[in-house]
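Notebook B, p. 112. Complex prediction, attempt 2.
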Amino acid sequence: MVRGYLLSLKIINLAIFAWLYIIFLTSIFDFNTVVLTADNEFVIFAFLGALKNVFSYLIYGLFFLIAYGLAFIFGGGVNSFTFDFIEGFFQGYLSKWFSIPQPELENIPNLILSEFGVLFNDFYLFIFQILFIISIFYAIKGFFKSDPKNSFVAIGSIVLMIIIPLMVVGLRDMLNLFLGSLPPASRPEFVQYIYQMASTNPLDDSLKQIPIDNFFQFIASPVILFAIISYIYLELTFQINYADTVTKPSLERNERLEAQLNILARESHFITANIDKIKTEAKEKMKEIEEEQQEGLVVGKFFAKTGRRFSYVKEMIERKKLEEEEKKLVTAASKTRRLGRYIDRLFREDSEARDTLTASSSAPRSRNLATSTLFNFIYRLGLLMIISFIIIHPYWFLATIIQLPEAITESVAIFSPEVIIILLLPIMLIFPVISKLISFIKHRNLIIRLQQEGRIKELLISVGDYVIKEELKAPLEEEAEGVVIEST
Amino acid sequence: MNIEELRVHRELEKEKVFKDDFVHIKVVIENIGRNSFDFIEIRDNYNPQLFRLILGENFISTRIGPKDIIKFSYVLEPKVRGEYALGPLSIIVKDRLGFNSVERIVPDSVTDILIYPPYEDIKRIEILGSKRSLQLNYGVQRSKQKGLGSEFYGMRKYVFGDQFRLIDWKASARSQTLIVKEYESERDVTVMIIVDSSDTMAGGAIENTKFEYAIRACMLLTKVALTRRDNVGIFTFSDKKNLKFLKPNKGEDHFYQVLDFVARIKPQGKCKFNEAMDNFTKRFQKRSLVFILSDLEANPKDITQAIKKLVPFNHTIIVINPFSPWFEIHEIDLSSTDKALAEAISEEMLEHILSIRQNLRNLGINIITCGPDDMMNQVLSNYMEAKKKGKAY
C-alpha cells in the first residue's frame, strides 16, 4: 500500500517535471536558438569543427616552424629554394590534409584567434544542450531514487539555462557602458566574444514582464508559474524522500523479520524431524573425542603426570578445537529448535507478538501520509505564493495591512530596489530568527530537565560504556594524584 | 515538536529469566498530543556484552499520528547470569526534512532483569530423575538408617525381639521361615555450599568464568540435594563487604530461593578466606557436608588457617578447586607466545595448589581440582560419595 502511494507520488512528480519543461520551452527558453548556429549548422558539429580547426592550425603552425628551423640549421642559412619547397609542400599538401585554407605562417595566430571566437560562441550554445541533457537525466534518476539531490540538480540545470544568458546579456550591457562608444573592430578580442555570445539570447522577452498589479495574472505569468512549479516539484521531491525515509525502515524490517520467522519455522521443524539423526551424529563424534580423552587427558591425571604438565595446555587447546566444531553444530541445532518452540508459544500466548516483532503495525499508513503530505504541501505553497506576491508587489500589503499613508504608497520610491530590499529583509530573517529561537528554547528546556532529573547520569551508567569510562577515569586520576604526591 | 507528548515504556515478558533462555521485550510508544510526529526514532538500549539480540530489532524509525500508539518488540537472550539493567530508552524526534531534531532519554526507563544461571544442568538432572535413576540410588545410601520410618528398606529373617507387626506373613509362608520387613528412618543431611565470589573468580571469558561454573555447580548440587530431601544452604564470600548467607532449608520452594540468591551474586572484592570463615562459623555451627568452591587464589597459609576453623564443628569438608588456567584459556587460537605464557602460569598455579593440598591433607581434607569439563561431575560424584559413606549426619 505504502509502496503504491510512493510510486504514485513519483509519477505525479515526473508529470510535474514534464509540465515544468513544457512551460520552460514554450514560454521562457527558445531551444532552437541553441541547437543551430547562424549558419544553420548543428551547434555540436560546429563546436567540434571549431575545436578541430584550432588544433589543426596549431599542429600546422608547429610543423611549419619545425621545417623552417631544420632548413635554417641544415641548409646553412637562408636558401630561397628550400623555403619555396617548404611553403609549396605545406600549402599544397599538408593544408589539404588538415582541410584548412592555404595559410601563410604569419596568418596562423589570427586564424587560431578567429577560430577561438567561433569555438567560444559554439561552446556557449553547447552548454545549454549539456544542461538540458543533465536536467533530463537527473529527473529520470530522481524517479528511481528518492534522493532530493537528483531533483536539485535537475532544477538547477534548468535554472542555469536562464541564469547564464542573463549573465552574458548583463555583462554585455555593463561593457556597453564603458566601451559602447568604441567601434566594434577596435574592442578587445574577449569583449568581441562576449558581444558575439550575447547576440544569441535564447530567453523570451516575457521574462522581463511580470504583471504585478493582479495576483492571478501574477501567478499565471510564465516566470512565476515556472518558479511555482519548480517549487512544487522540489516540495514533492522532499515529500517523496520523507515518505521513503519514514516507511522504508519499517517495510524492510517487516520483510526481514518475516523471512527470518519463516526460516526459523522451517529449520525448527526440520531439526525436530531429524533430531535423532543429529543426535546420533553428535554422539558418534563425542565418542571419538572421549576416546581421545581417555588417552591421558583426564584432568585428574594431570597432577599425576607431572612430566607431561607442559604439554597439557597444548593438548587441551587441540582437544577444545575438536570439541568446538561439534558443539557448535549441536548447540545451533538445539538453539534453533528451542527458539522455534519459544516463538510458537509466544505467538500463541501474545496475539500481537508477531505484529510487534515485525513492526508491521508500526509502519506509517499511506492514508495518514497522504493527508499530511497534502496538508503540508498546500500550506507551504499558499504561503510561498503570498510571500512572493508581497515581495514583488508590496503596494497592497503596505496600503492594506500596514496602512501607510498614500504619500508613501503612491510614491515612486516605493518601487525602488532599496524599498524592496528593506521589505525583503524581515522576511529573509524570519527563518534564522525562528531557528535561533527554537535552539534557545531547546537549550533552556534541556537545562531545566537536567536539573529536574538528576538521575540522567545513573541512567547512562546502566548502559555500560559510561560505566567503563567512569571506572577507568577514577583509577587513572588516583594514579595521577599519587604521582604528583610522590614527585612533590 | 513537543517531545514530552510522547510516552514510551517497555514491557517485559518476564523479569526473571534463566541464562540461555529468551525474553520478549515490547516497547510501547504513545503520542498523547494533538500533533503528529513526522519522524521518530526510538532505541531501547541494552548491553551487548550481557545480552544477545536473537530476533527483531531494538529500534524503530517511523512516524506517529496524534493519539496514536505504536509498538515494536524484540527477543533477547541473556548471556551472563546476574542482575542487570535493560535500557534506557532514547527518543530522537526530527522534523519532516530532518533540519531540526531533539533527542532525549526517557526518564525511569531502566528495568532490572534477573538472570538465573543456565537451567541446562538442572534440566538434565530432572530428565535423569524422571527415569528414576536418582531414586534407584536410594537403596545404596547409608544416609538413611533402619528404624521406624515409612520407607521400605528390605527384608530379613526374624530374630528374637523383633516386633510381630513387622513380620511379613506372605513372605514367611513362601520361605517357610519368619521374615520381617525393615523400614528406614529419614535423617537429614545439611549441605552447605561455600562459594568464593572474589574478583579472581571472574577471570576468563565473561560467559564461562570460574564463578559462573561454580554457580552452575552450586545449583546442580542444590537441585540434587533437595531432591534427596537434604537441607541446602549457601554462603558466598570475598571481602568483609561481600559476605552473603542463605539459611539451609529444604523443599521445592527453597530451590527458587537459591536461584534468586545466586543470581544476584557478583564476583567482586579480594578473597579474604579467614574473615569469611570467621563469619561463617559465627552464623552456622551445625555439623554438615560442606562444599567449598574456590580457585584458592590467596595466601596458602591463610587458606589453611581458614579451613582449619571449620574442623572443630565436625563438618565433612570437600574443596572443589576450579583450576584457573583451564578456565581462563578461552581463546582457541592462541599464539605460541600466549601458549608458552599459559603453560608457565599453569605451572606456577599448580605449585600453589599443591602446597595448599599438602597442608590440608594433614587435616584430612582433600582438594579436588577440576577443569570446566569435569567440574559438574566432580561436584556431583563427591556429593554422592559422601552420601554413600554416610558422612555428615
